Amino acid sequence: MNNTVSFLVTACIGLVGAFLFQFLHIPVPFLLGPMVAVLILSHVTKWRFYWPKALRNYSLIAIGYSLGAAFTGDILKNMYTHIPMMTFVTLLTFSVSLLFSWLLTKFAKVDYPTALTSSVPGGLTQILALAEDLKGINLTVVAFFHTIRVILIVVLVPFIVHIPALQGTTSTLPSLATGTSTTLPIWLLVVLYIFACIVAYRLFKRWRIPAATMLGPIVVTILLNVFVGFPAFDIPEWFMMLCQLIVGTHIGLMLHPEHLTHKKVMLPLSVASALALIAVAFLMAVFFMPVVENTSIVTGFLSLAPGGIDQMGIVGHEVHADVSMITMYQVFRMLFIYLCVPPMITYAVKRYRAK
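User: That's the sequence. What structure does it adopt?
Assistant: Structure tokens below.
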């Protein structure tokens, strides 16, 4: 089976999964459906699956653009006022991660650098890329823990934010056309933003900036929309669904839980750590964020949930939450992970080897 046939088979399975989940009224069907369908069939059949990474990258570029377009000048002016609160909730979340990294070391006999990398909250793709760059990390354990977390987050978070009692607390999605008026035709704006986002992605990747596929388009969209004055355009709903399908299929193919040994010890700890992080995020979203940040429960929860920017951003679009607030918190935590966690893990590796 060549790549073209394998790609078409994978695409059809993802599409069937998406429409099946939509028919069953499961939240975010075009993300969850392809992920579950591809995950199951790739493990129970001998079919060869193929999904180009470039396709996933360009879908994340589009999602990054949509997240960047949610920012306005007022939001950016007031962003500095959120830094203390973002730092506090991030450190609180990390304290829970440190607890479970200690439990993983004590009961599963995993070295502490690997346990720490496995426990930190973040997107699956970003954390695995980070683990690959650090020496002395057991990638199998890291992949397993974050695979379980991704499954639980992507499955549970959409269901939580779709609870009827919370629907009245959702906030209005910010208008995407936030720049100043311009005489440029819409087709020229589309071409301009496509070109700018792709260039920003390639530059960020060349400069080795973390999560270039997301951060590049977010940054350049904010610059063009807010500071230069080229208004961002609305992305059609069907196109966002297509991007969700592509990302969901990619996630499904990344999940390989069969590669891990000692599952009887790892599985309970991985599930407990993921549930604890989700519970902490939800409690802060209910009792803390509405008072301090004046957000809705749904927006606060998606801002604090231990997922990636792409996954939480997609869910935020789905439930019409404040995507700018979600993106701001998720970006801050991701930057914290890439700036602070590598020195911590490097130090832990040195101490571990010294012992």
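The chain is about 75% helix and 0% strand.
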